[in-house]
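Dear Dr. L.,

I hope this message finds you well. Following up on our conversation about the binding site, I have prepared a predicted three-dimensional model of the protein together with zinc ion. For your records, I am including the exact sequence and ligand specification that went into the calculation, followed by the structure tokens. Please feel free to forward this to your student if that is useful.
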Amino acid sequence: MRKLIKKIVPRFVLTIYQDYRSKKRSELYAGNGVFCPLCNSNFKEFAPFGSTKRENAQCPKCGSLERHRLLWKYLNEKTNLFNDTKVRLLHFAPEKSFYDVFSKSQNIEYVPCDLYPKKYTYNGKVKTIKVDITKIPFEENFFDVVLCNHVLEHILDDRLAMSELYRVMKKGAWGIFQVPIDYERDNTYEDSSISTPKEREEAFGQSDHVRIYGKDYKNRLEEVGFNVKEDDYINSFSSDELFKFGLMKSELIYYCRK
Ligand SMILES: [Zn+2]
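The resulting structure of the complex is given below.
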């Protein structure tokens, strides 16, 4: 249905509608209990989100979720992305709230990309380009930073994808490659004979996921050459701060250096 609406409604009408909806939702959640660092806005709380409705999850204004806000704070506090140094950034499956900032940053040479770039109808001067993550159309040692979040769990040959990420990064470049992980599992669960959306939903929890990563996710990244830091940055927040920024207690950040 969403796809159909996107096809038949002109983009400027969609944008007006989205702006109107975001304004209405912001009014509904007016208050000072939480703060979204992506759109710099206060609300009484974040909106519930997800099939099982997580409380305090989605920003009423910019739509950011817990993982986006965690990553945002991490990028600001722990990396050089917003220093004045020039960085060439490759960004897979670019989230809108990140796109809006990266595409306007003076120091970032921004390359947003996806296998299906038409999905990204963002109003910005930088176009999202088509990139197959298992065959990235850039030369080696090209990017200073790569962001690739919640993508690898969809890719059949994720090891090939990881080696491609490694190849296009400069020596010393860093990337963040978040995926959903079941920390109850030592080993990643995958089975290529499970191939229909229905079977995948039952086996992997989502119709377009092809595995459930376990604690060995880090090893896979290391096998292609990355130096991986599983950063428990989330533990630096007090419980009041976890609520204030709407963060989930469990997420480790996978900071990977070439
Ligand atoms: Zn926001």
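In brief: The domain at 67-257 is CATH 3.40.50.150 (Rossmann fold).

With kind regards,
A. P.
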